[in-house]
Specification:
This protein is of the alpha+beta class. 28% of the residues lie in helices and 37% in strands. The chain has an eight-stranded mixed beta sheet with strand order 1-2-3-4-5-6-8-7, with helices on both faces. Coenzyme A (COA) binds next to β5, α3, β6 and α4.
């Protein structure tokens, strides 16, 4: 079940399958997307979860405090950290671990649909906005991409 672990002083990140992670990932998503942001439950659950790698962040006591997912095609999504844990590096650790997982699986281009309020967060990791803004689940988004491999010089 476990394929990666990372520990810091106050929280740790665990990466695994939907089978292992669904209940705890949904706890965070319910709090952040459904209750805080008002995303309809029906839009929160989709068929991509079953084929994705999921990163979860846990506090010292084993309570889940954040989540994110990586689809096989390199799409990152469902990034969420509980409000009381924001601004403490949890999102950075989750995204870093998902990028590392993508690299390990040979993904060449990462993509995500960023809420416009979170563009600066992803830009710190080298993601660049592409195209026009659009509304998804009632929230303004923009697509962002990051290439993981550079073309070889001639
Ligand atoms: C976006 C989110 C996952 C970031 O998680 P986090 O744990 O707060 O992020 P970190 O603490 O690792 O932040 C790293 C840096 O990014 C900045 N940052 C975090 N969220 C940001 C945001 N929404 N916009 C701009 N900068 C942001 C932080 O200020 C911090 O900068 P600093 O190191 O200069 O202080 C979290 O804020 C969240 O769950 N938001 C609600 C759900 C959401 O919007 N998800 C994104 C969907 S696309």
């Amino acid at each position: 079940m476990t394929n990666m672990n990372d520990f810091t002083n106050t929280f740790h990140i665990h990466v695994g399958s939907w089978n292992d992670m669904s209940e705890r990932a949904m706890q965070v998503r319910m709090t952040v997307f459904i209750k805080e942001q008002g995303v309809p439950v029906a839009l929160e659950c989709d068929s991509f979860d079953a084929v994705s790698q999921h990163a979860l962040a846990f506090d010292r006591n084993g309570k889940v405090i954040g989540t994110g997912r990586l689809l096989p095609d390199g799409h990152i999504g469902r990034m969420a950290v509980l409000p009381e844990w924001r601004g403490q590096g949890v999102g950075t650790a989750l995204l870093g671990k998902l990028i590392e997982t993508a690299e390990a699986h040979g993904v060449q281009t990462l993509a995500l649909n960023a809420q416009v309020g979170a563009v600066a967060f992803y830009a710190r990791f080298g993601f660049l906005p592409v195209g026009s803004e659009f509304v998804e689940a009632g929230i303004l988004h923009i697509a962002m991409i990051r290439h993981l491999t550079m073309a070889k010089p001639l």
